[in-house]
Specification:
Two copies of one chain form a homodimer.
Chain A (H helix, E strand, L loop, with lengths): L6 H15 L8 H8 L3 H13 L3 E4 L5 E4 L8 H8 L24 H16 L7 H9 L2
Antiparallel strand pairs in A: 1-2
Helix pairs in contact in A: 1-3, 1-4, 1-6, 2-3
Chain A binds a DNA duplex through α3.
Chain lengths: 143, 143
DNA sequence: GTTTAATCAGACAAAATAATCTGATTAAAG
DNA sequence: CTTTAATCAGATTATTTTGTCTGATTAAAC
């Protein structure tokens, strides 16, 4: 069981952080990303392809090709990756799965979950990819 | 996509809350629970069976049989249902799926997620089933 | 004791998610 | 221009999750 994102999304977050932490380098092949992060190569490749369509990363075909961050990493937030892969429905769904859970018809956890959800959203929007660089490098070097 | 629990767990939480909110009545058949909560009957039946094995609810076979809360609802917390169905791994896994994510080798979100996780745990442990009774009745009456 | 309405058990089916395979295309480098 | 190393596209497989079906068992009520 994953915590709150799909496996695809977890991998996507890891991979994009990896690319952002290595902006200084050229395009990075899917094989390297897969190897460093222990993700199946074809799977991470697919995920990065889809993020290319979303405009978050670039891809370059052919020899010495690979993937790289598409724009200024100061302008990319983790929420962008989550939105592109899992979507944002988790931020307006009832935590217990009740339908029509809103302020007029709240489930027993509505208020408490509401606070948590707001903080979870902040967690994904407060910092940009550039600000995660060092932490990512430290984590990746210990995998 | 569910928010943070599996569908099975969401249904389990809803169903147990329903039973707890109707403790005054006799055993409640799976069919009623399924109908009120719009959950497939056989599915909720399976879920309630498994919670019977976990000792959270009782079942009675035969005519006028059904399910009921097994013990004092003041002594049951939502976390008990989550633990029985999804397990507690979500409370010690990395939110981004990194391995070995701990204080010595944290992922970029480790600290922020740590706080959230603690609060999510509180959300499931602060109140007992009895305290959810009214809120549940209000919600269920508007489904 | 027969009928009826329920759980229970286990197999089965469908759908979603995760992962793999194959071959085509592309572009750098010799 | 040939080789090589990469993405890309799409089909396929595997696994997990979700949901369904069938029949056996149980117990209340008549």
């Amino acid at each position: 069981m994953t915590v709150m994102f799909s496996k695809k999304c977890e991998y996507g977050l890891q991979a994009v952080l990896y690319l952002a932490a290595h902006m200084d380098r050229d395009a990075i092949p899917a094989e390297e990303v897969a190897g460093k992060l222990s993700i199946p190569k074809e799977f991470v490749s697919k995920i990065l392809q889809s993020l290319t369509e979303s405009g978050i990363i670039n891809s370059r075909k052919g020899k010495s090709g690979g993937f790289s961050i598409a724009k200024d990493p100061k302008k990319i937030k983790l929420i962008d990756i989550v939105a592109a892969i899992d979507g944002l429905s988790m931020f307006n769904s009832c935590v217990m799965g009740f339908p029509n859970c809103d302020v007029n018809n709240p489930c027993p956890l509505h208020d408490k979950w509401g606070e948590l959800r707001t903080k979870a959203y902040s967690m994904l929007t407060d910092e940009n990819l550039d600000q995660f660089r060092e932490k990512t490098l430290r984590k990746v070097s210990n995998l």
